[in-house]
Amino acid sequence: MAAASRAVTLPAVVEELLSEMAAAVRESARVPDEHLLLLKFVFGSSALQALDLVDRQSITLISSPSGRHVYQVLGSSGKTYTCLASCHYCSCPAFAFSVLRKSDSLLCKHLLAVYLSQVMGTCQQLSVSDKQLTDILLMKKNQEA
Amino acid sequence: MAETLKRVLSPGRAAGPREDMAAEVGPPLLLLGGPGSGKTALLFAAALEAAGEGRGPVLFLTRRPLQSLPRRTPAALDPLRLQLLCSAHEARGPAPFLLLLDGLEEYLAEDPEPQEAAYLAALLLDTAAHFSHQVGPGRGCGLLVALQTQEEGDSGDPLQLSLLQRYFPAQCWLQPVAPGSGQRCFRACLEPGGLGPRAEWRVAFQPDGEMTITPWPTQAGDPSSNQGPSSGGQP
């Protein structure tokens, strides 16, 4: 999977960590322990939850023939959340609260899981039609409120 | 798109070679100002400037007729404009290389939840990113969005504004200044989001509606000023 190019950049330390992890995966197909430790240091418990989501194959990259794509993450509660990864958005309540309202966190676990799955090159892939992708993007808006 | 806005604001400087400018997209830019501060005029001027470059289509989204006075119409605002962003990938034909949206405050007023505002901002970025992908490597699609703030330069809801600033690293503020001889004057202050120094211009609207833009006069004694006959001496 190509390296993510983000419209909203994360703090430099996070971007650097993610690109170092990607390089390590390319070289040795695994993430070194020191990167995992750094991940836990930066993100706390979200790191473990995000890694768990990756392990459980909970992330799906949905793309259409146009090339446009979104991510969906199956959360631990069984609900599916939609993430616009490059634009730093997740539909989960934690994102709305911790990231947007309180600015406590940089990311929710779902967004972190998406970034990790990009780095590690593991996620489910689903192809939909252009129209279906429109509905996914639109429906997401109606689900909130 | 900070670069396009800068070219609109400083037409004299754009006389140089354009090839290097073509590659530069710049961060998404939020244009802020109170009612009647000239956001729509500037946004539209940027659209015309970009369209005139002949690089491709420019997509301008607005709910109001451009020639109308900036009064909010009580008629039902069309929520389906969001459909345009969500279905942008369905359109055939060349992708725009500049996406402009006027009146972000109207979309936000429909749903004041922070998550909705974030989603709208993220969707705008995602649409521009998709167009960038279509336009091809080395070029990109810029994003310019106008947001009306309260009168008197008050930014209104600070939470909503800081939320939007997450998604729009560059901002240009339009603030009214004391008018002179029938003109309406505004100070345009561009913060390019870390990619360059802050820059300021004076935007004046004549009674006949004509817009003139001049660089904001620098302070007297400013060592970087190149105005005045003898600029060699440093204070």
From TrEMBL, chain A:
Key word Calcium present: no
Record key words, sorted: Metal-binding, Zinc, Zinc-finger
One of the record's GO cellular component terms: Shu complex
Pfam annotation, one family: SWIM
One MF term in the entry's GO annotations: zinc ion binding
Domain SWIM-type: 81-119
GO terms under biological process: double-strand break repair via homologous recombination
Entry superkingdom: Eukaryota
PANTHER family recorded: ZINC FINGER SWIM DOMAIN-CONTAINING PROTEIN 7
Protein name listed in UniProt: Zinc finger SWIM-type containing 7
Source organism per UniProt: Myotis myotis
